[in-house]
Task: structure prediction
Amino acid sequence: MPIPERLNPAFAPTRPQEPDPLPDPIEAARKRLIVALDVPGAAEALDLADRLNGSCRWFKVGLELFVAAGPAVLEPLIARGHSVFLDLKFNDIPNTVAGAVRSAASLGVRMMTVHASGGPAMLQAARAALDCLADPPQLLAVTVLTSMDQAQATAVGLKRSPSAQVELLANMGLAAGMRGFVCSPQEVAALRALTGPEGVLVIPGIRPAGADKGDQKRIATPADALRSGASYLVVGRPITQAPDPAAAAEAILKEMAEALAS
Ligand code: C5P
Result:
């Protein structure tokens, strides 16, 4: 399946007006790599961001860092010119999620997440909260966590396989007007077929060949995830816990660039 050209409109402000006739493949890969700053404090996060400054443009701030450091951690990342994905995976009643989404948007982040399992009314409320903004961040619905395998899914009462549940949630999200989704690399091809080129598919569970899986279950290599139709890859520990994070990021960018060019 061809890799979709469309990227998050959040990137538009920094994109040149005219397309580059000879796009640098590493640069194309860099626009699609999001590094998860899953660290316990602002000092560690900014140290990592600075070590990766030449390699990575997008950083994901998730629960561990946001709970420890609060919204103040976003400002120095944004001031350094990075795009921030705030991954707090909201899941609450529609009114509460709409308020949380509004508050998150006011922090200057360019992507944010809600759980698709919150249901269509919650997704519609989240969308409506962003609709009135001139340059809203990309809203993403998280389908089924990449750490969930069949045993975990069964334990929470799911009758379907994780893949079937992802498709059900994606169809529900599309009907609720969502265009952005988070899923595992193993479902990205099916979701790309459902969303078409307009879908913004953000894919965690990325492991270069031979890397430690950790708690992730439904994984793939950077190249395979891109070839299956991913818009963006989220990579945490394979970069952040590497002895040399910048070298690990460069190796992943090289693999991504080769996949994009093939
Ligand atoms: O370290 P690792 O590469 O496994 O990090 C993956 C990141 O993606 C984590 O920050 C995790 O919270 C996030 N994520 C995920 N699965 C989802 C949604 C987000 O692993 N379905």
